[in-house]
Amino acid sequence: MASHEHGEEQLCTLEKRGNLFILTLIGAGEHRLNPTLISSLRSALSRLQSDPSASSSALITTAHGKFFSNGYDLDWAQSSKPRLQLMSSSLRSLVRDLICLPMPTIAAVTGHASAAGMILALSHDYVVMRRDRGFLYMSEMDIGLVIPICFMALLRSKIGDPRARRESVMRAAKLTAEDGVRIGVVDSAHDGAEATVAAAAELGEALVARKWDGHVYAGNRGVVLREVLEALGSDEAVEKVAEDKARSKL
C-alpha cells in the first residue's frame, strides 16, 4: 500500500512496509500545523484504519527536512479568533485520532519539534529522536502564548518529573534527544535521520511481534490517557490568546 495526499501540493505520504505503516510529512519546509496539513494527516490515518491489517500493524510518523513540525501556522491564523479555533480544534481531533488508533504508534523525530509540533510527536506511544539535530521545544513562553489545557494534560502524562515539566513549559527549554532520554520523554537517540527511522522500524516490528489485538491496545491506551482525552474538549487557552491579541491592537 502506497498512497499520497494531493492538493495544491503534496503534504504527506502513507506507505505500507510489511507490518508497518510509514506516515511522512514531506518537503523541506517547517511542516506548520494548519487545517490543510492536519486534514491530510487525518485522511491518511483514516485510510490506514480501513486497511484489513491495521489492527496487527504499527505506525511510524516521521518528516523530511530540518523540522518534524515547527508548531501551529500562526502566520495563517493571523491572530484571527475563528482561525485559531479552527486550527486548535483540527489538531485536537488529530491527537484524538492517534490516541484511538488500533495499533502501536512511534514518532521518529528527525528534526525540530516545537510547541504543537512537540505535542504531535508526544501523541505517539513512543518517540525515537535524532541526536545530532533537532530539539523538543515548548515555545509558548518565548512567543507570548498561553499553553492550551490539552497540551498540558498530554505533557503531564508524558513527563513524569514535575521539575522536568517546569523546565519544558515555564523555561521553554530546548530539549535535545539526550535530554529527552534523560527525562523519559524520548525512548532512544540515534545518529542521523536514516538511523532514527530504522530504530523506529525495529521497535515497530518488535511491538507487532507481540501479536496484541489492536482494538484492545487502543482501549488500554484510552484508559491510560483518559485525562488527555477529556482535556481535548477544552479550547479555553486559544480563546484567551485571541482575545488578548485583539485587545493589544486597540
What report would you give on this structure?
With 250 residues, this protein is an alpha/beta fold. 49% of the residues lie in helices and 18% in strands. The protein is built from twelve helices and eleven strands. It has helices spanning 35-50, 74-77, 81-100, 116-122, 140-143, 149-158, 162-170, 177-183, 193-208, 214-224, 226-231, 236-248, and strands at residues 2-4, 12-17, 20-25, 58-63, 67-69, 105-109, 112-114, 126-130, 136-137, 174-175, 188-190. Strands 1-2-3-4-6-8-11 form a seven-stranded mixed sheet, sandwiched between helices. A four-stranded mixed sheet has the order 5-7-9-10. The longest helix is centred in the middle third of the chain and has 20 residues, at 81-100. The termini are far apart. The relative contact order is 0.15.
